[in-house]
Amino acid sequence: MHDDLSDERLMLAYRDGDTAAFEALYARYRTRLYRHLAHQCGDARLAEELYQDVWLKVIHGRTGYEPLARFSTWLYRIAHHRLIDHYRKNARQAAGLFDHDIDLDELPATGCADPARQVEGSEIARRLATALGELPAPQREAFLMAEEGGLSLDEIAAATVTGRETVKSRLRYAVGKLRHALQDLL
Question: Which domains does the chain have, with CATH numbers?
Answer without folding.
Answer: 7-102+114-185 (1.10.1740.10)
